[in-house]
């Protein structure tokens, strides 16, 4: 467990002179999955069994058991299974939050997506906090109580729990510590890796993308201070208790979208890399020990146990009912945020994705016409079979020659 990047390769080089065929190297750091794939391939040629194990849980996980996501050379799993599952966190029924993920870089890939979802979860909670602080006038102790209450219901999760504790923490002068922490967020790259991979596969991982950009925007502190003087705040603390409940519903619905997108990305990566990821097992691994552990991961496991080839969580009966129940509150919160000038990048993009994903028709037909007009990129027709492409001489001055059809 060393810093990701060159230190891992350097450490492997230090170990190699002392190893023989059949020995096992386990990288339990936050390595990028292409690096793990490369190390898996190189060590396999030498007869060394490489395991890239994603580990999540922070300090509490280190003391009481983390979530462990091992992948790499499957020949190593029988040798390490008992050890890994003994030290891993346990779900409510005692099942270890650790199982074999897949060959090559699969373990670190799943950990990467876990971290991306973590980015999204944290940003969503921050947006809920911003709404409570700006529009309801709740004090820090009252926000602590609100989050503690939320943690007793569908939002039950590690991040909601610790957020309540953060609101309660006082500085040495007796004032809330949170009020003195600079609003500039750091990042180590795993969220960016997730979004980059989603772009490579063409998966609309919009929520995690906005979460990454929100951290980037937070780092522009001086520019934000200067711009704030030109555009004074429009928000007013006029919303009551009813709005607090609506925020909870919007947070819950947006969280469902975040996990929906994350599992869509893993499904695509599994297909392309032939990893055969077990999504129900992954949901179980995340139920305990890890940063994104939450109550509804059990429902995700049930959904994938029922249908391993599930295209989206949104089409399952449970999540359909939950989203449908939240929709009016979700729309109200996003609308109110826009009207009062409260930035809600993740709440907004979650709702926008949902509305796009449930739309039988999108305005992309106009986009295709535009592409064909200026670049002869061709288009498909609604009255012809899929896979047939057409080009129109839109101005009467062009020709019949079209661009070749391909997707990046």
* Number of H/I helices: 16
Q: How much is the average pLDDT? A: 93
Radius of gyration: 24 Å
Q: What coarse outline follows from CA principal-axis ratios?
A: globular
Classification by helices and strands: mainly alpha
Layout: helices, strands, pairs:
Elements: H1 6-15, E1 24-27, H2 33-45, E2 49-56, H3 58-64, E3 67-72, H4 77-87, E4 102-103, H5 106-136, H6 140-150, H7 158-168, H8 190-201, H9 206-218, H10 221-230, H11 241-273, H12 279-285, H13 297-306, H14 317-339, H15 345-357, H16 364-375
Parallel strand pairs: 1-2, 3-4
Antiparallel strand pairs: 2-3
Helix pairs in contact: 2-5, 5-8, 5-9, 5-11, 6-7, 8-9, 9-15, 11-14, 11-15, 12-13
List keywords for this structure.
4-stranded mixed β-sheet; 4 strands; 408 residues; 16 helices; mainly alpha
């Amino acid at each position: 467990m060393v810093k990701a990047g060159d230190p891992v390769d350097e450490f492997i080089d230090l170990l190699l002179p002392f190893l023989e065929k059949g020995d096992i190297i386990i990288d339990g750091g936050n390595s990028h999955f292409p690096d793990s794939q490369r190390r898996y391939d190189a060590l396999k040629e030498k007869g060394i069994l490489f395991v890239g194990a994603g580990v999540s849980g922070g300090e509490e996980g280190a003391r009481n058991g983390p979530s462990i996501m091992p992948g790499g050379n499957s020949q190593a799993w029988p040798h390490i299974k008992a050890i890994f599952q003994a030290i891993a966190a346990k779900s409510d029924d005692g099942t270890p939050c650790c199982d074999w993920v897949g060959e090559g870089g699969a373990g670190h890939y799943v950990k990467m997506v876990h971290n991306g979802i973590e980015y999204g979860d944290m940003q969503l909670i921050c947006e809920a906090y911003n709404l409570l602080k700006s529009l309801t006038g709740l004090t820090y102790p009252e926000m602590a109580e609100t989050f503690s209450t939320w943690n007793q219901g569908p939002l039950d999760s590690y991040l909601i729990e610790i957020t309540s504790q953060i609101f309660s923490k006082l500085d040495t002068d007796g004032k809330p510590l949170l009020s003195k922490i600079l609003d500039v967020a750091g990042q180590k790259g795993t969220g960016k890796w997730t979004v980059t991979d989603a772009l490579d596969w063409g998966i609309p991982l919009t929520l995690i993308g906005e979460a990454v950009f929100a951290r980037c925007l937070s780092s522009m502190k001086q520019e934000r201070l200067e711009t704030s003087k030109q555009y004074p705040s429009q928000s007013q603390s006029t919303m009551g208790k009813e709005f607090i409940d609506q925020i909870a519903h919007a947070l819950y619905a947006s969280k469902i979208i975040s996990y929906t997108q994350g599992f869509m990305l893993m499904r695509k990566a599994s297909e392309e890399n032939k990893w055969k990821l077990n999504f129900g097992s992954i949901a179980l691994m995340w139920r305990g020990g890890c940063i994104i552990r939450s109550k509804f991961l059990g429902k995700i496991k049930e959904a994938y146990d029922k249908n391993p080839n599930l295209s989206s969580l949104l089409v399952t009966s449970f999540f359909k009912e939950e989203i449908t129940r939240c929709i009016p509150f979700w729309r109200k919160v996003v609308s109110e945020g826009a009207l009062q000038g409260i930035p809600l990048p993740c709440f907004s993009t979650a709702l926008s994705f949902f509305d796009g994903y449930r739309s039988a028709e999108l305005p992309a037909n106009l986009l295709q016409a535009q592409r064909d007009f200026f670049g002869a990129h061709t288009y498909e027709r609604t009255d012809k079979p899929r896979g047939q492409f057409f080009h129109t001489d839109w101005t009467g001055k062009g020709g019949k020659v079209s661009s070749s059809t391909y997707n990046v």
